[in-house]
Each structure stands twice: as structure tokens, then as C-alpha cells.
Specification:
Elements: H1 2-13, H2 18-25, H3 40-62, H4 64-97, H5 106-128, H6 135-144, H7 146-149, H8 159-172, H9 175-186, H10 192-206, H11 213-217, H12 235-244, H13 253-277, H14 284-293, H15 303-319, H16 325-334, H17 339-344
Helix pairs in contact: 3-4, 4-5, 4-6, 5-13, 9-10, 9-12, 12-13, 13-15, 13-16, 14-15
């Protein structure tokens, strides 16, 4: 047996059975490791992030003013993309469940409404920024015309309250015109009790008195028919009311009437959804935003004062019919003109 083994070893050493040697010497090696090899794409992405971070540090150090515009643009773009995805999910859900706009929750309705307005205004700037390096042109626009051409996503934190204040000041400029047109319309009402209620209410508002909801409800008959229903408003009245809703007044009367009715009914749907959700469930920021789109600038008011005002608005909106939408539209002026003063008193 020993001689047999010795001979086998000699044959192996002399290459007599090369196949056995190959199997013996070249067995595959299995090494365990916890690290996964990075793909080419992940390496490129990592390098790009590193270079971008260094570029931002360079801008922040050497060109701080330009860095503010650059960082605002980048953050705004990301926010816009996130909102676009959320809106897409809402619309997919609407199609799959067969829901209409007024059947959505309050926050879903508000997101769709605001996104539509934002994207219409942002569309020209987004198109301009598509070509390579064209986003630098956007920075020029952000510097010279931020309020006129850009949406809230591309405003700096300092600009946001400043621009909202400017927009509200522009809106307040037509409050006087709306009240004067209401006084003229009151003179056309033949029913004496209704006429007296209207004159008393509009005079009080012009003198700085904040109206009660019962006083507004008492005149709703004048807004469901002549002289103040949506179909009875003249061109001057519709232009003023369009500015209150931040809509362009430079359209034919037919389009102005259609847009006014569409937007105030949209707000009425939001009111109905908010009535189910309850005002107390909104954050302070959401409450102030809700007041702003209904005519009240809550920037200089406390959150509780805004909640009280919004609760009164929701209460009024819930008592009005679709045919009385014109009164809800005019209430943006009636309920907000003297509210700040009434809080101080």
C-alpha cells in the first residue's frame, strides 16, 4: 500500500495526471465581504453632489447675494417638483375613484387650487429655464422682477411677507370702489325694508364699523337677483372684484363674469370642506393663508383673531345658496375692511 501511494505521488509530481492536479490546485475561492461594489452611476452621482456642494460653498463665500438667488431657485424648483408629484397623486386618485373637485378633502382641494394658479404664472419662467445654462436668465428675472414674474416658491424668506403685503395693498385700493358701487346699487332697490338694511350696512362699513353676520344675511335677497346678482354686475364692478381675487381685469365682461363665478364657487367648495374639517384643525399658517385668499391679510393679526374671522366667514358661506354667490364675493370687502380696527378696539 505504501508503494502504491508513493507511486501515485510520483505520477502527480511528474505530471502523469494533470487533470487531477488542476482540480486540486485551482478550486474556486469564495471570499465573504460586507461591501458592495459601487455602480458607475452611483459614483458619478456622488461626484456630482460633491462638486455641487463645493460650487455652492464658493458662491456663498465669494458672491453671497447671488448665492441667495441661486439657493432660492434650487429650493423652489425642488418644492415645485414635490408639489407636482402630490398633485399628480391626487388626480390619479380622483380618476380611480371617480371623484369630483368638490368631493376632495379641504387640503387636497386647496393644493389643487393653489398649484393651478402657481403653474399658470410659473409656466413662462419654467420654459425659459429648460435650455442649458438658461437658468441664469431666471436669476436675472429673480433679481429685477421677482414679484411680477415669479411664484412664491422662488421668493426669498424676506420677500414672501413683503410681496403678500404689496398684493393686499393693491387689493385694498378697490375696496372703496366696491363699497361705492354697493351704495349706488342700493338706490335701485324698490323694497323699502331691504333698501334700508342695505343703506345702513354699507354706511356703517364706510364709517369704519365691522358688520355683524346677521346684517349681511339680511340683504342677501339683493344678491340673488337684481341689482347685484352675478349676471347683473356691470363691467366696472366686475373689474374691481377681479382685482380682489387677484384676477386680471383686462378681459371682456363675459369672461370676467365667468371667471368671478368660477373662483368664488371654488372658494365656496373649500368652505364646505373646511366646515367638515373644522377651523381648529388647521395650523396657524394654514389659517392665515385661508384668510388671505378670502380678503383678509392676517400678517399683523394673531392666529386666534384669524381663526375667529375665518369661522365667521365659514358660517356665512354655509348659509348662502349658489344663486347668492355674489354676496359671498362682496363679503370679501364687507368682512375684511374694518376687521383690524375692530380687533384694536
Amino acid at each position: 500500500m505504501a508503494l502504491y501511494r508513493t507511486g501515485m505521488c510520483r505520477r502527480l509530481m511528474n505530471g502523469g495526471d494533470r487533470r487531477l492536479v488542476s482540480i486540486t490546485l485551482y478550486q474556486p475561492c469564495h471570499l465573504s465581504t460586507n461591501q458592495k461594489p459601487q455602480s458607475v452611476l452611483s459614483v458619478i452621482t456622488s461626484k456630482a453632489r460633491h462638486l455641487n456642494a463645493r460650487y455652492e460653498q464658493f458662491l456663498e463665500r465669494k458672491f453671497p447675494n447671488f448665492y441667495i438667488l441661486y439657493s432660492t431657485f434650487m429650493k423652489g424648483s425642488r418644492m415645485l417638483l414635490i408639489e407636482a408629484k402630490e398633485v399628480r397623486e391626487i388626480k390619479v386618485n380622483m380618476r380611480s375613484r371617480g371623484l369630483k373637485f368638490h368631493q376632495l378633502t379641504y387640503r387636497e382641494m386647496e393644493k389643487l387650487r393653489q398649484f393651478r394658479r402657481d403653474i399658470i404664472k410659473a409656466a413662462p419662467v419654467v420654459i425659459i429655464s429648460i435650455p442649458p445654462f438658461a437658468n441664469y436668465l431666471v436669476f436675472v428675472l429673480m433679481y429685477f422682477f421677482p414679484r411680477q414674474l415669479l411664484i412664491r416658491h422662488f421668493w426669498t424668506p424676506k420677500q414672501q411677507p413683503e410681496f403678500l403685503e404689496i398684493y393686499h395693498s393693491m387689493r385694498k385700493e378697490v375696496y372703496k370702489d366696491v363699497l361705492e358701487s354697493l351704495q349706488i346699487a342700493a338706490s335701485k332697490v324698490s323694497a323699502e325694508p331691504l333698501h334700508n338694511h342695505m343703506v345702513q350696512l354699507f354706511t356703517q362699513v364706510q364709517r369704519g364699523v365691522h358688520p355683524q353676520l346677521t346684517d349681511i344675511e339680511a340683504i342677501k335677497a339683493a344678491f340673488s337677483g337684481p341689482p347685484l346678482s352675478m349676471t347683473e354686475l356691470d363691467g366696472i364692478q366686475m373689474k374691481a372684484l377681479s382685482r380682489i381675487l387677484f384676477l386680471t381685469p383686462h378681459l371682456p365682461a363675459f369672461f370676467l363674469q365667468r371667471r368671478l363665478k368660477s373662483h368664488i364657487l371654488e372658494i365656496r367648495h373649500l368652505d364646505a370642506a373646511l366646515l367638515q374639517l373644522r377651523v381648529d384643525e388647521l395650523t396657524d399658517e394654514e389659517v392665515k393663508r385661508a384668510c388671505y385668499i378670502r380678503g383678509l391679510n392676517g400678517a399683523h393679526l394673531g392666529a386666534e383673531a384669524c381663526r375667529r374671522w375665518l369661522s365667521c366667514w365659514i358660517q356665512l358661506s354655509g348659509k348662502l345658496e349658489v344663486s347668492e354667490a355674489s354676496l359671498l364675493l362682496h363679503s370679501m370687502v364687507l368682512l375684511s375692511t374694518n376687521y383690524h380696527q375692530s380687533i384694536k378696539d
